[in-house]
Amino acid sequence: MTLTTRTFGSLSCQIYDQLPDQTKPKLIAVVSHGFGAPGDDLVPLGPEILRRNSDLASQVQFVFPAAPLSLLEMGIPGGRAWWMLDVAALNAAIASGTIRDQRNETPEGLVEAGQQFRDMLDALLQDAGLPLSRCVLAGFSQGSMVSTEVALQLPEPPAALTIWSGTLLCEQRWGSLAEQSPRFPIQQSHGKQDPILPFEGAIWLKEMLEQREFSVDFTEFMGPHTIPEPALEKFGSLLADLTSSL
């Protein structure tokens, strides 16, 4: 696996591709990790998707930004976060089986994380010489939330947004942004046995987006907080469909 590390904006990014020398990608997939994971947590998805879709190897570049906050002081060496969480409240909700309704919450640090992500994205695309329409935003858990936060505010539509195990935050604000946003295709997946971000939150997000006339390809599965095989297959197919039209 060939990896390079570069900084765009204030974020360190792992870059994976199999492009021939001096060849620019047709499409960039920015894949963002979840709370507590190291910045390279999802890097193995790059070679796995190219193994399944060999035609993408000469066309797609994968970029894996590391979230800005270190969790070393929380006892998670190498762990990163887009914004801090109340871990005690999360663990209590998991233990009691309580549904965490975050629709009226704008987590402290979400907006700032979104701005850092946007600065990274702008610098990345400027360096690559590509427009927003050649970029797919994808993320898992907290990474999917910051990706959603940014995607809904872009002045031009990205190629697509992929939400793995996300949830609906700040419903009124995201709803208003979605109404004003140019439309783009969305993939979403969520486990019906997810103890961390309950399935209901994913449905609320899906319904909010569909009410604003976004097309959402939703994959539900019997499983926990993870990226399932069908969602990974769909993501590879999405990249193949996008590149075939370029």
TrEMBL record:
Coiled coil: none annotated. Residues 29-234 form the Phospholipase/carboxylesterase/thioesterase domain. Keywords: Hydrolase. One of its GO terms (molecular function) is hydrolase activity. The keyword Cytoplasm does not apply. Belongs to the AB hydrolase superfamily. AB hydrolase 2 family. This is Phospholipase/Carboxylesterase. It comes from Gimesia panareensis.
